[in-house]
Amino acid sequence: MATKDSTALDNPYDLSAWDIGFVLDFDVPISNLRFSPLSAIPPGQLYRFSRFLQVNRPPIAIECKEVSHAHRSSLDPWGVDFRSGPGFCPVSATPWYPPLRGCEGGVGVVPPPPEPVVNLSSQPAAADVSRIWVRAEYLSYWVKNTPVPVSIVTGDINNPTQELLNSERSLGMLSGFRFGFGAWLDSSHSLGLETNIFALERQTRRFFASSDDMGNPILAFPFTNQTPGAVGDMLMPITSPGQFAGNIVVSSTLQLWGAETNGVISLARRGEFEFIGILGFRYLDLRENLHISTLSADVTDTVLLQSDHFNTRSQFFGGQIGGRLDWQGERFGFDLTGKLALGSTHQSVDIQGFSAQNGPAGATGVFPGGFFTQPSNIGRFSVNQFTVIPSVELKLYAQLTSHVRAFIGYDFMYWNQVVRPGSQIDRNINLTQSAIYGNGVLTGPASPTPLFNRTDFWAQDITFGLQFRF
């Protein structure tokens, strides 16, 4: 049924007030034609009725009511003549096919065949001439605290229980960058390639404690002595009031970078939403270092420098699969990406240390092993482990120009198998193998040992960047 709002008469080209009603009839097949009254539907709403306009569907009978002759140019761009008056239909010398039902004596003319009517909601997005994209991001990262199982105690010389160094150390915020580029291989944006590479700055955190010239306050390492005949928990003093002064430096360093190359395929499009499949290769590289250094000088001017180095590296090589949900409006958009990487992590642990002593008391020279590093655990060790790395990325976009988008985002990554330097420290120490505290020949258990402990690792970041399309 064609009806009109009284407000529409003031503007014959205002089609928003018109409404078309359909009465379905199931007598004969419909031809591949479009009835004139449908031209009264605003173009943006045509897809709502397109399901009625397909070939081999039941015929449509239109109940015609009064249509003002003054509005025919806006209602009928195909030239069908609309007559005014109650109960009249479009008239011409040639009848409509199929016949219009519910009209009183009216006949119409078959319009020339139009372009096929399509359902816009089910078609792929129009081809975009922009097929290449480049993205640059600033990363503000936080990572899981690094373990440091070494305690430094101070306090009363007879009961030094106050801890200066915690068992975990925060590395704070790390800055970095990510650079990405990619291209669609076809004009319909259905198949493409993308590559991303990121790197974080080398971050170092230091702890420093020292005594005055008289050795106050006491600073000492708790450890478990494994020397035969003296097994038990003990303290190794670095400073002692009235005997020797000194200091302790503990530094932790971390560096992380990675890269990935993926094939992307558009799996589904609906309106402004698109789902993209991801399949590719990923590489991650995590390097850490824990350095413990002590310096002591006694009243006889004998100086002892000891240094322990624990270095670890975890390198992941593997394939990944994932998906990305993308929504792009006229001014704003977002994408949510999830990926799962499966592969092997090459884990390596490098333990090194030395002691250097000079003065009238004790042995003079440079000797292998510091305090937590001894000949029994010094060396380089490696192994490969199966690893799982899930990750998620969220980005919110603002369209600046037709070729430039600004965005803010959040990323999270979990790595289930890595080696970290603090986890490799064994506090069970047999001092007989030390040239400083023993005779340099191991007697009893070979402690400390190379532990090769593994743990998990996570990293998260806030990202800011720009994307350019060409």
Q: What best-fitting shape do the alpha-carbon axes yield? A: elongated
Q: How many β-strand stretches?
A: 23
Termini Cα gap: 49 Å
Radius of gyration using CA atoms only: 39 Å
| CATH architecture label name of the largest domain | Beta Barrel
Instruction: List low-pLDDT spans.
Output: 1-111, 118-127
Order of helices and strands: EEEEHEEEEEEEEEEEEEEEEEEE
Share of β-strand residues = over 45%
Question: Which tags fit this structure?
Answer:
470 residues, mainly beta, Lipocalin, 2 domains, three-stranded mixed β-sheet, disordered N terminus
Please describe what this structure looks like.
With 470 residues, this protein is mainly beta. It folds into 2 domains: 1-123, no CATH class; 132-469, OPCA outer membrane adhesin/invasin (Lipocalin). Helix content is 1%, strand content 51%. The protein contains 1 helix and 23 strands. The protein has one helix at 72-75; strands at residues 2-3, 19-20, 23-24, 60-61, 132-143, 146-147, 153-156, 159-163, 168-169, 174-184, 191-200, 203-210, 219-225, 232-239, 244-270, 273-298, 303-328, 332-358, 365-368, 379-399, 404-418, 428-429, 455-469. The strands form 6 sheets. It has a 10-stranded antiparallel barrel. Strands 14-13-22 form a 3-stranded mixed β-sheet, with no helix packed on it. A two-stranded antiparallel ribbon has the order 1-2. A hairpin with a 6-residue loop joins strand 13 (219-225) and strand 14. The longest helix is centred in the N-terminal third of the chain and has 4 residues, at 72-75. Residues 1-111 and 118-127 have low confidence and may be disordered.
